Amino acid sequence: MAWRRREDAENPAWPGLVDIFGFTLAFLLLLWFAANWPQKVENLEKKTQDLGAQIASMSANNQRLQEINRGLAAKLRQQGLVNQDLTGKISQLEESKKNLEAQAGLLRAHNLDLNGQVAQLTQEKAALKDIGLKDWEELLKLLQGKLAKKKMLVIPHKNEKEIEIQGQPRVTFATMKYELSPFDKQRLEVLAPILYELRQKKKFFITINGTADPRELQNAAPPRNNSELSALRAATVAALLEKAAPGLGRYLRVTGLGVKGQERFLAPGENPEEIYRQYRRVSLVLKIDVAALMEERAAKPGP
Q1: Has residue 185 got a pLDDT over 80?
Q2: Burial class, 73, CB count within 10 angstroms (exposed 0-12 / middle 13-18 / buried 19+)
Q3: pLDDT, tens digit, for every residue of 138-150?
Q4: Domain of 141: which CATH number?
């Protein structure tokens, strides 16, 4: 500090007072700082510790955030792989969808074609139902007229285009026999030429159905059982018809139907020969030959 010269002020004592005041003020400041310095140092140390704790906490948080960030990065990488896999699967599904749509289109076209075929078959079935119906009706009238006085029963079956002929009484056989009685031979010999004559007018074939009664039959020699016995009875009638009307055999079909009816206990005095006779019989069924009629139609030239 520079000493003021006496000539710097009018009052010669003033410079000294100023210097004294300055020294006093500086001294008081030093005393104040000296008195508050430990508290300030303590406060600074406390703030430093608090800052250190905050820095440690922030460091720990930073580490946790880094770990979380690494976990998220790994999940993002994994999700990226999953997304790539999903993208591939979506592409496959889209391709499969296109293939399915193409197949569905083919199936629809095929279904339309099938519907057309079904409609055509339905029409053909309806047409087949009518084929031979007129022939059947005309054959029925002819048979009824021819057999009206021949002790023959004519039974029509329109849906099957069949006509069953039964004798009145029925043509039957003795137990375990397949020979015809003289009466049945006579009736069949009269019937054969009539059938042959009608066959020249209408296309049909004749099924001869033989049956046996329900009692068990087991022989070492033919007929060995009831099935063979029923077939032999039908064959016997066929042979007689062919002999009575040569050429008729081409239209005969022999069928052994085996056992008919059920065996039962007989009451005292009942004769099993008569009880079971109704099951030992033959029947003739005339059926319109639809296949032959269709061939005939196909052979005819169109209009």
Answers
A1: yes
A2: exposed
A3: 999 999 999 988 8
A4: 3.30.1330.60
